[in-house]
Amino acid sequence: MKIVHAASEFYPYAKTGGLADAVASLSGALADNGHEVSVFLPGYRAALEHKDAAQAERVLRLKIEMGDQFLSGDVRMFSPKRNLKIYLVCREEFFDRRNPYGTGERDYEDNADRFIFFCKGVVETLRLADLQADVVHSHDWQGALLPMLVRDAERRHDVTLAVKTVFTIHNIAYQGLFPRTVFARTNLPEDLNSMDGLEYYEQVNLLKGGILFADRVTTVSPQYAHEIQTPEFGNGLDGVVQTRADDIVGLLNGVDMAVWNPATDPLLPVRYSATNLAGKQACRAELLKRCGFTAGYKGPVFGVVCRFAEQKGLDLLLANKDFFLKHDCRLVVLGAGEKRYEDALRKLVEQAPAKISLSARLDEAMSHLIEAGSDFFLMPSLFEPCGLNQMYSQVYGTIPVVSRVGGLIDTVTDADEFPATGTGLMAAPTAESLGDALTRAMKLFADPARLAAVQKRGMARDFSWKIAAAGYEKLYQESV
Ligand code: ADP
Ligand code: GLC
Fold first, then answer.
1. What is the pTM of this model?
2. Which amino acid residue places its CA nearest to atom 22 of ligand 1?
3. Bridge partners of 129?
4. Is 22 a pocket residue for ligand 2 (Cβ < 6 Å)?
5. Which residue from 139, 164, 459, 472 has the highest number of Cβ atoms inside 10 Å of its Cβ?
6. pLDDT in tens, 416-461
7. Which of 25, 255, 388 to mutate to test the pocket of ligand 2 (most atoms within 8 A of CB)?
8. What is the 8-class DSSP label of residue 294?
9. Closest ligand to 371 CA?
10. Helices and strands: H and E segment counts in the chain
């Protein structure tokens, strides 16, 4: 099949979170299975500067209608591997910036224009380069206009650009909400500027457009597919999602074993596997050293790698700070995002620098080292569409301690509740329940035989993209 993806992140060209990993591994797996895959990304500075993009060639000059203006740009293409083409939709004014969405706390003020331009650039390329897509599959609010724009362009130009459109919700908390005046820049028919279209309480809601107008809607775990139809997790769009109840499916993400595999991971000082765990000890030693902790420390090491956002349950973690101060353990945190979390964690480090470490930055190598060198990986999320780190943890023999929400429910089994099959520890998304799980983690650590059994079971689980990609292939085939 000819499959087109459009997304705002793709590892290793642009990444702020799991979206980058998910889109890259899905499109890579589809290409490996023989499909012709084209992936559209905004031409961010980082993407253009990546070594793979050195061979990029300009395939199209763009003139994009945005309201009553025309904005120029171009599309560059390169192919990092067989069956996979990356198209960068470029316009310096919009994308020649350090970050994809904004700086620190603040989103760029022109994000609506940036991603409307991006989606329109994709549609223009589908049309002018005649890509003849079987499926156009877009992701999150940044790609949410595509299903509508594709059908609108087909009407205007009397062509077929895609047999079917698919839209994936990676996180319903980010909706692309903008002032109503933004609608004019979509150049869509005025009847879509209504309750049955993009209008949402006097604003424009781009995500809503993707949910309503794609032929098929997916999200990244079965549990989240169910949750987003409830007021508790639907972020105000549960009613909209419910209208698509028959067309929505939850397909669990996987682990890209080319990137996240302790036996081959080039970012680790020493590699290891379930049958030879010596390397994991070496990773632990390196992690202790990097954090400035005493070498040879024998107690439990808790790792955290996440965006600093409310979603990740950092408030629950901070509410349990006494646990880390009182007990004989270590806490290693890597993250970037909201300053209030960084400040609170920095304060905590000042209270116990010999036990607690904070790296407030994006650091791919450090994220791998934490997954490998920790005993437990903490993910006390308030909600979690899928979550990747709890899967990486299991693959790396690090026991996940997670909230009982979303994809975490689909990928972790509590070892106290299910002693014969457990691979982690689970808690309700409350400070108290997390505190209880941390205490249970200490108990588990004090029982080496049980600890090793839980670890081995996690390492034996198959989270590879084979299963996930097959789910998407089936969905595409059904649709076309
Ligand atoms: P989300 O997409 O909600 O952020 P996921 O668990 O799906 O959560 O994916 C997070 C991804 O981002 C993982 O690959 C994780 O290792 C990575 N990540 C998060 N924060 C950092 C950071 N500060 N440095 C490097 N990688 C990070
Ligand atoms: C989102 C979600 C995360 C998911 C990722 C990839 O960022 O927050 O749970 O794993 O997308 O689908």
1. 0.97
2. 362
3. none
4. yes
5. 139
6. 999 999 999 999 999 999 999 999 999 999 999 999 999 999 999 9
7. 388
8. P
9. 1
10. 19, 20
Nearest CA to ligand 1 atom 24: 362
Nearest-angstrom CA–CA distance, 440 and 368? 25
Q: What is the dihedral of CA 43, 47, 52, 57, to 10 degrees?
A: 20
Task: Please tell me whether residue 359 adopts helix, strand or coil conformation.
Answer: strand
Secondary structure element (H or E) that encloses residue 156, with its range = helix 146-157
Taking only Cα atoms into account, the Rg of the chain, rounded to an integer number of angstroms, comes to 23
Residue 237 carries which DSSP code?
-
Say how many C-beta atoms besides its own lie within 10 A of residue 335's C-beta: 23
Amino acid at 160: T
* Cα-to-centroid distance, 155 and ligand 1 (Å): 40
Locate 157 and state its tokens.
């130009």
pLDDT at residue 480, as a whole number: 84
Beta carbons within 8 Å of 443's beta carbon, 6+ residues apart: none
Instruction: Tell me which H or E stretch contains 378.
Output: strand 376-379
**Phi/psi of residue 331, nearest 5 degrees:** -130, 125
Both tokens of 418, joined, read 């299910």
Residues with CB under 6 A from ligand 1: 17-19, 21, 305-307, 334-336, 362-364, 367, 386-389
The pLDDT tens digits of the residues spanning 342-362 come to 999 999 999 999 999 999 999
Question: How far is residue 42's CA from residue 15's CA, in Å, rounded to a whole number?
Answer: 12
The atom number, within ligand 1, closest to the CA of 22 reads 7
